[in-house]
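Internal ticket - ligand job 381, flavin-adenine dinucleotide:
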Amino acid sequence: MSLKIKVVGGGPAGLFFCYLMKKSFPNYQVEIVEQNPADATYGFGVVFSGRALSFLKQGDASVVERLKSNMQSWSDQHIVHKGQKVIIDGNSFSAIARITLLKELQALCRDIGVEMTFGKRIESEYPEDDCDILVAADGANSVTRDRYATEFQTQVQELENYFSWYGVETPYDAHTLTFIQQDDGVYCGHHYRYTPAMSTMVAEVDEQTWVSSGMQGMSNDERQIHFQNVFKETLDGKPLVSNRSTWQRWRLVKNGKWHHKNIVLIGDAQRSAHPSIGSGTRLAMEDAIDLWRALQTAGTDIQTAFEQYEKHRRPIREKLNSAAEKSIAWYEDIAKKMSLSPEELALDYMLRTGLMTPQRLAQDSPTFVARLAELGVPLAS
Ligand SMILES: Cc1cc2nc3c(=O)[nH]c(=O)nc-3n(C[C@H](O)[C@H](O)[C@H](O)COP(=O)(O)OP(=O)(O)OC[C@H]3O[C@@H](n4cnc5c(N)ncnc54)[C@H](O)[C@@H]3O)c2cc1C
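stdout (structure tokens):
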């Protein structure tokens, strides 16, 4: 028996799911609808930890190898505080331009016979009436999900800090977090190279800084210039590049149920991941892997497949979500941490989610831990 599968949203989750399904079930009709043109993307580069890439390999190792040839990789993490750089060894990361990731996934889908429609926004129609499975992969502001917000038990929480996603033509050596404290507040930049020439700069401030610096009353262009001036040295004098870069608060979306009728949620539509644990794209693609696996096992018994997907995936997602919540709290509390020394701040950052233990840190980052010992900074409080 053949199934007709429709996917709303051609981001990493939707495209990867279509590819995996069509590869396993060539007789299924697999369609994807994306509101943007095929070559449009907002944002710059996305980062994957080494661990995240090994998870994705479980879905399709050849896809990860193909993506790797377009990635920038490094093994250290840098924390810059009080103008001093702390190097944390043993932190493998890779980054790729979001547009390259999407183009690679689009090419894989095209080659395998996924029907792709670009430049079409699903708004008021009910696409679930016209297919066996409707996959909502339309991101954090999913209209497919919001139409059934009561059934999905959707909850939205607006976080305190403000952020914006920029690019800069400065290729940083490593995944870096730079903290700058001034009289008007505390500023944080997460920056990493994603092509040999370009880096992403995620700019973030806490609520106090948003008000005291006057950013609250500025236009987006003025905020960009303000952040650029604060980070002049870090940016090596280069301007920040905007790509619809607007300052906003993060909307954390959760769902009590992941499926309703023949509709199932994956990626940010299911749970918006926070960038401070750098895993949104990886989590979205892993959701795609889990839903594909459940459909492989349950065949055309769609409700069983949805239940298996949620049963297997929910505990994994919740573990990472609880880590993300601790990370969010850490950034919201950043002003209190500015009195720490650079090494103390780096250690506090590394242990903030509880996923990294002092024991694991000692194993993974021996040079950093030896430096802490030299300075008399205790590994565990
Ligand atoms: C500032 C910032 C920094 C980030 N940094 C990282 C990072 O470093 N690493 C990382 O892994 N992730 C990062 N993320 C998160 C990452 O972007 C998302 O978690 C990831 O893209 C989720 O994938 P997705 O496919 O679920 O959703 P999306 O990537 O949001 O894709 C959804 C797609 O659906 C389309 N769509 C939406 N509505 C409709 C509709 N009605 N009809 C048709 N199409 C529709 C959209 O155009 C979009 O293409 C960051 C996000 C932000 C905002």
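Auto-summary: The radius of gyration is 21 Å. The chain has a mean pLDDT of 94.
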